[in-house]
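Hi R.,

Here's the chain you asked about this morning:
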Amino acid sequence: MDAVTVDGAIAAVSYFLDMVPDALSTGDVSQLMALSDPECIFCKSIADDAEKMHAKGERQEGTSMRVLSAAGSEINPGYWFSVDARVEQQGWQILDAGDNVVESDPATKTYAMNFAVINQGGRWLVRESQNTRE
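And here is the predicted structure, written out as tokens:
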């Protein structure tokens, strides 16, 4: 993730996706937002969902995400990258404060995701993502 290359951008996307289940489970969105450009609507929606759940005393378990394949291209050398990833998302459940299931989706899903990723001052940021369920 240190290299400002396509491989670095792909690693940044993988790391970002690793942070999603943590944010939804704990309500702590600080690491997720540290990897997010302030203009990223996709990133903000995940953070908002996590914060709303935790404000109600709920948390989401599961939702682990795994990159099945990824490829990228450098759009603006050393700065702007595009990453296309096939991502598998495991089933999940939302639990209330008493560990009662409020909502669940046990199905594993696969998504085609396109990420706009920037490297700003040596720091990777997800700028946006568009997702299509396969």
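One quick note: The mean pLDDT is 96.

Cheers,
M.
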